Amino acid sequence: MSQEDHTQPLPDITPEDILQRAAIDRSTRLPVLFFFTSAAAWLLAATLLGLVSSIKLVAPGFLGIEWLNYGRSQPAFLNALLYGWAFQAGLGVMVWMMARLCRTELKNPITLVVAGHFWNAGVAAGVIGILSGYGTAMKWLEFPSFAWPILLASYSLIVVWLVVMFGARRTGPVFISQWYLLAACFSFPWIYLTANLFLNVFQQSGVAGPAIAAWYANNVIFLWLVPVGLASSYFIIPKIVGKPIHSYQMASLAFWALVAISPWAGAQALIGGPLPAWIPTIAGGAQVLLLVPVLAVALNHYLTVRGNHKLVELSPSLRFTFFGSIGYVVTSVSAALLGSLTLSRFTSFSFTQDAVAFCGLYMFFTMTMFGAIYFIVPRITGCEWISGSRIRFHFWWSAYACIALCVLLLAAGFSHGAATDTWDSDMENAIIFSKGYLVGQILAWVFLIAANGVFLHHLALMVCNRGRKAGAPTLIHQPAPYDQAELVITTEGAEA
Amino acid sequence: MNSLKHFVLTLGACFAVPTYFMVAAPYAAERNRQTVAYVMEEPGSGKPFDDGAFKGLSYPSAFAGDRKRGEQIYSREGCAQCHTQVIRPDYAGIDQFKKTWGKDQEGKSIVPTRQTVMWDYLHENFGMIGQRRIGPDLANAGYRFTGKVNDFYLYLYAPRVRKAWSNSPAFQHLFITRPVEGQGSANALKLPANLAPAEGLEIVPSSEAIALADYVLGLKRDQALPVSITGAKPKSESK
């Protein structure tokens, strides 16, 4: 990584820079808006499926058709959230951010949109496949086996242009976000191809199968969601705060620690399972070691924002990103804890696993992506978000609901796991003890649906060019008059 | 490091080494795993070795009946979302001592259930360890329904008839409602009045439900292992 002096103040922006940025934004407009809108639509669909599956846990007869049985609606929800929303939101952010950071225009937006259609078709076919009873039992790979070549091919077709852009970048120091984005370009094809080759093509994996699936599911979080989310937060936090990253060396160290350690983790989900004991042991140890990059990233983010915490209150992008950064710490710490043998007797097969997965997918990644979308969309549409109060609603309802969901699922998991861990009771205690938390979970889903409905509507208005055409950037609150002078957020809004 | 080539090579090394150890090597080990024959006499000494009841057999035995199809249905219906099939050793959970999770269905046994080993999943396309344990463990579910296959069908069709607190989905799409012919099917469900079909009709399991029953009733992952796997003499209770 480059060793340039990053403590210098940022250079002044010249008019050429502004024109060039506008040209880059225009070139990425079509694919990025396509990915964001289809992602937001999938997000709403996924939250609806999540609501159905959480109702099914306490009222299994709800709606009464076999398509929505928990065994089908739960994987359909998770796969829709992951491949429908998370991947497409991430791809939109990747395309825009790579173009901006490499200072190159995107040459072939149409190819990306076509590949994006194939991706959407693959996800839709996969979700319908699960719901209609053709899914598999492999964690986070439940799509019927025809879906994965479609997804892999369309993903590769998209990211190959990001690598090309990186190759054609204007020379100069490479920013940490670019390394993260590049890592995400390569990591997903690697883990997805590996997992699918072994599980869907070679087959007959016996007891190695669940270990491979657990390895894949963990690495989707730590080798794809985390790089994309961190690329976004390393970009947005310095932009809004107007300061460079506190320590570039620390950022670089955290990056290499993440990519070197993460691929070892995952199989700790099978502690006590019929595997050679070294597999879950090494995996659990790696999961704990992953706290090193987490600490470095969190400290770096904190020190960058320090002194400007007022901005977290005002800027939508920064507030979502900041929340997402906290989510990253929470996800990693709880994932490390759940890999411990002491806790695993209560947590291995209970809702706590869902809590951690949801924490990574939502509290960290989704919230970070919201921050990025609030940052990017005004720039590529040329108009401002319509109302700060809608963003405020979106933030608070999402934040409240995803914290509530994680806490409730953790509590449900521990009570379920502890009740199962007594020798003479059947499952009655476990089901009755966890029921209250699972009922509360339904309420949180309703909140999420409301928040995501508002978000989709707001985004659709922006895409249809019905945003505010002029004026200051939309902030969550209007700053009070007396401190306005110091709190002009120069880098928020369409102009910057 | 500012060159794409170096970056890709370093990244590739970071990914490749753990992929070999965590994915490829365990897979290869499972793929090469063979059934193990029970040996009656220890080579050399000629002392009794495995239990005589297993003479001429290997562990595990091949899937019988429609079990392979049942396994597919088990996976397609998402049973593994809520049911595990693993008995963990005592340091990792209470599974070995859990009432009704082993051979003994009365909860009187003092013999712990054998923990599951890699050989137990040998004939499976994807070891059905499962993702959650919302319902009971099914590693030895075969004992629960031995000789009581109609109980299994009833659970599948209407889980709350027997256990009002159950939150299992009902799998009514795996059953057929048809007119009674002659004396009626031996497998026709005996349902309470509020669920019973109209007069002259009966509800019977479809071929999919029958295959699923074949699979679940065949789940007995506690058979005594050949000594060459365990490295110890089997407990005398298996005689």
Written description of the protein model:
The complex is a heterodimer of chains A (496) and B (239). With 496 residues, chain A is mostly helical. Chain A has 15 helices and no strands. Chain A has one domain: Cytochrome c oxidase-like, subunit I domain (Cytochrome C Oxidase, Chain A, Up-down Bundle), CATH 1.20.210. Chain B has 239 residues and is mainly alpha-helical. Chain B contains six helices and four strands. Chain B has a two-stranded antiparallel sheet. Chain B has a two-stranded antiparallel ribbon with strand order 3-4. In chain B, α2 (67-76) packs across α5. Chain B is globular, with a radius of gyration of 23 Å. The relative contact order of chain B is 0.16. Chains A and B meet through α1, α2, α4, α5 and α6 of A and α1 and α2 of B.
What structural category characterises the helix and strand content of chain B?
mainly alpha
Characterize the main sheet of chain B: 2 strands, antiparallel
CATH topology of one domain in chain B: Cytochrome Bc1 Complex, Chain D, domain 2
Roughly how much helix do the residues of chain A carry, as a percent range? over 70%
Low-confidence stretches of chain B: 234-239
| Approximate strand percentage of chain B | 5-15%
CATH architecture heading of one domain in chain B: Orthogonal Bundle
Order of helices and strands of chain A: HHHHHHHHHHHHHHH
Main beta sheet of chain A: none
